[in-house]
Amino acid sequence: MTYSLILYEADVSDVERRAAELRFRRALEETLGDASLVAPVYRAYLRIVGSYGDTPDPDSLTDAERAIFDQWQAAETAAVAAAFGPNRYMGDAMYEIRV
Length: 99
Known about the structure:
2 strands
């Protein structure tokens, strides 16, 4: 399973945007353990968020759901920091992942 990534940053050149996308991908894939895990983990995360909301009560999740939810959030945080800088808030990061 593959995925595509688009970063949206109006104030950078195409070269800088592509470099940021590469940093985002590398951090995401390294945190999850492998590029082949991005799409399935992201899909599972989206199912969890669709069922329980963006900030689910951890007690309402199964152990497996909690592991996926936490794993994706850690990977996403690492990727955003790698692409946009460590002081960038998640709400400010503009990117799209398609699976």
